[in-house]
Amino acid sequence: MPQYMLLMIQPVEGPPKENWAEQSKQWNQFHQDLVDSGVLVANYGLAGADAATTVRVREGETQITDGPFAETKELLAGVVLVDVPDLDAALAYAAKVPSVSYGAVEVRPLWGG
């Protein structure tokens, strides 16, 4: 089966602060639904952009910079890798990501490997 990466995008300021307990419950249920359906390959949140380090090589010289590459209003917050029959199935799971109501989920097929 094809694998798809669900890239969870959220506002820089993070998720809404209200209803933390409810959000945690939704995330736990989403994770369990992926496990129960047998499609979960990996599910990881990412540390904030302040923990990022960017590496570039320009004209043979390695440049290391603290923080993300570009200023933006949204950041990559986490990734979920699913093994599903097709893009439609991946999109259906993306629509169930709890943060989709205040952020976005970008869905990309994996290739190579």
Overall description:
There is one protein chain. With 113 residues, the chain is of the alpha+beta class. The chain has one domain (3-109): Alpha-Beta Plaits (2-Layer Sandwich), CATH 3.30.70.1060. It is built from two helices and six strands, in the order βαββββαβ. It has helices at 20-37, 87-94; strands spanning 3-11, 40-45, 53-58, 61-66, 74-83, 104-109. Strands 2-5-1-6 form a four-stranded antiparallel β-sheet, covered by helices on one side. The longest helix is centred in the first third of the chain and has 18 residues, at 20-37.
Number of strands: 6
Report strand order across the widest sheet. 2-5-1-6
Radius of gyration from CA coordinates: 16 Å
CATH homologous superfamily assignment: Dimeric alpha+beta barrel
Would you kindly provide a brief summary of this structure?
The chain has 2 helices and 6 strands; from the N terminus they run E-H-E-E-E-E-H-E. By secondary structure, the chain is α+β, with helices and mostly antiparallel strands.
Keywords:
113 residues, alpha+beta, Alpha-Beta Plaits, 4-stranded antiparallel β-sheet, globular
Topology:
Blueprint: E1 3-11, H1 20-37, E2 40-45, E3 53-58, E4 61-66, E5 74-83, H2 87-94, E6 104-109
Antiparallel strand pairs: 1-5, 1-6, 2-5, 3-4
